[in-house]
Amino acid sequence: MTAPGPTGDAHHHPIVERLLGFLGFFRGRPPIRDGQSLADFIDQHAAFLMQKGIYEYSRARAGHYAKVLFRESGFQTAVEESRWRAYPLGLAMVAELVEGVLRPHGADRYMQLNALSALVLAVFDRYPVPPSLGEEAWSEARAELARRLQLIGLHAPKRAFEICEPWTDTYFNLMPIYEKLRRPDYPTIRNYLRVTLCNIHEEFTKRLDAPAVAAALHADVR
Q1: Nearest-CA neighbor of 40 among 122, 103, 128?
Q2: Phi/psi zone of residue 63: left (φ > 0), alpha (ψ -120 to 50 degrees), beta?
Q3: Total number of domains constituting the chain
Q4: Residue ranges of the alpha helices (H) in the chain?
Q5: Is residue 89 a part of any domain in this protein?
Q6: What's the gap between Cα 165 and its chain centre?
Q7: What are the tens digits of pLDDT across the range 106-115?
Q8: Please, which of 19, 70, 131, 160 could form a disulfide with 192 given CB 3.0 to 4.6 Å?
Q9: Among 63, 58, 65, 71, residue whose Cα is nearest residue 174
Q10: 145 is in which domain, residue-wise?
Q11: In a domain, 18, yes or no
C-alpha cells in the first residue's frame, strides 16, 4: 500500500520532512508467522509510532534550542509522561491495522478479534506501571485500550491512513510543547501519523504469513 500524499503544502514542511526521515526503520525484518512475532511487531511499532513523533516533533519545534530543551528536567518529565500516555494509543492503532489485514484470513472473525485483543493486552502488560503515570492512570489506560479493541470489529476495515483519525486530537494534545506554539502544527502531526501507518501497513503485509498467524490466533482461543 502506498502512502497518501499529505494535504496542502504540509508535505514540504520541515517538521514533516524530519518526522519522515527515519522511515528506514522499516527494512530487513524477519517474517511474522506466530503469536510471539506478531506481539513483538505490534509492541515495537506502537512504541515507534508514538515516541518518534513526540521526540522528533519536539526537536524540530525547538530548533537550535533542542539540546538545551532536552536537558531540562521539567521537559524530560513531560516527555516521559507523554510517551507512556501515548503508548496505548499506538497499540490501538497498530492493532486495528493488523486486524484489518488479518480479517479475511480468519474462519471466525469474532474469535480472531478476541485472540488479537488478548495478545495486545498481554503486550501492554509487559510493562510495569510507569512512575510518571501511577497505578490508577495506567489501569484506566488498559481498560480504555480493551474497550477500543472490541470496537474494531464493529465496522469494516479502514485504510491504513484513516486509522489515526479518532486518535489524532488526543495524540496531538500529548505533545510536550506549549499549546500556543504547537497549535499551527496539527496538520503536520496528522500527516505524520497517516504516512507512518501506511509504512507500517506496507511492512506488515510484506512480512506476514497470514495463514500461519490466523491459525496461531485460532489455537490461542480454543
Answers
A1: 122
A2: left
A3: 1
A4: 14-20, 35-62, 66-71, 73-102, 109-124, 135-151, 168-173, 179-182, 186-207, 210-221
A5: yes
A6: 12
A7: 778 889 999 9
A8: 19
A9: 58
A10: 31-221
A11: no
